[in-house]
Design a protein that fits this description.
By secondary structure, the protein is of the alpha+beta class. Among the domains are: 35 residues; 110 residues, no CATH class. Helix content is 42%, strand content 23%. An 8-stranded mixed β-sheet has the order 1-2-3-4-5-6-8-7, sandwiched between helices. Helix 2 runs antiparallel to helix 3.
Length: 260
């Protein structure tokens, strides 16, 4: 009996050591990814966007370095795009988003419209103005942004997209898909197992964009997959695109919604 207890104790120690070792490795991956100052540096082709009558360029940023002008811009664009989908929940959600916006771990990719952009194809949306952006700061107008973080979900390191917001006048020109492709490349390069994000159920255009065009799945941690009874009270779904077998088994497990 004594030898069996000793054996069990040894096995538990080995198991505990393996668990701690895995956790440490994941933490180091997250730390390394978060320490990178400019994730765009590894993908030069993605610094410029020249398609569908839109000429723009991308730049990186972080939550703790946002200027007051950029904070106001982010808040305004969020209100324009998200007040409708959130409905009565917006007043509470807006406060949450303001805190998330300036978190040290928040990473950004801003889209600036090039000053030499042709306005011929988009004059109908500009109504005579030089730009359709709500940007009130210096330099070329910002017309959208992505906010993302490197976090752990179900013991899997992931890129979680907190926001993908574009000015209404630059939507439906391929820019959203372009930005998500960039996020997926950033995730893979930094050894993340998946890209995840949250979408309001009422935002049918966004839900269709992610599940049909980009082939994201409803994650196993989304309310509708965890408990359908609780899901009825929730206004959102958590979507996922996993890159390896472990991430797929823990975060997806056949949660695909898109059309074949």
């Amino acid at each position: 009996m004594e030898s069996k207890r000793v054996q069990n104790s040894r096995e538990k120690k080995i198991k505990r050591k393996e668990v701690l070792g895995k956790k440490k490795a994941i933490d180091e991956v997250i730390k390394a990814a978060s320490a990178e100052k400019d994730h765009l540096a590894s993908f030069p082709p993605f610094r410029q966007y020249e398609r569908n009558g839109l000429s723009a360029y991308l730049e990186s940023g972080s939550g703790e370095q946002l200027s007051s002008t950029r904070k106001r811009y982010i808040q305004n664009l969020l209100k324009v795009n998200m007040e409708g989908p959130y409905g009565p929940e917006w007043a509470t959600e807006e406060k949450v988003k303001r805190r998330e916006m300036v978190a040290p771990e928040a990473r950004y990719i801003f889209v600036r419209e090039s000053s030499n952009a042709s306005t011929n194809e988009v004059s109908s949306t500009r109504e005579g103005n030089s730009t359709c952006s709500h940007w009130m700061g210096d330099g070329d107008p910002i017309v959208g942004f992505v906010q993302y973080r490197f976090i752990v979900e179900e013991e899997i390191p992931v890129v979680y997209v907190y926001e993908l917001q574009l000015e209404p006048c630059v939507q439906r020109r391929g820019l959203g898909k372009f930005l998500m492709q960039l996020i997926e490349l950033i995730a893979r390069k930094n050894h993340m197992g998946a890209v995840m994000l949250t979408v309001q159920k009422s935002n049918l255009l966004a839900m269709n964009f992610y599940t049909t065009k980009l082939r994201y799945m409803i994650s196993t941690i989304s309310p509708s997959r965890v408990d359908p009874l609780i899901a009825a009270e929730k206004s959102y779904e958590i979507l996922c695109k996993a890159f390896d077998c472990e991430a797929k088994s823990k975060l997806e497990e056949n949660g695909y919604l898109g059309e074949e």
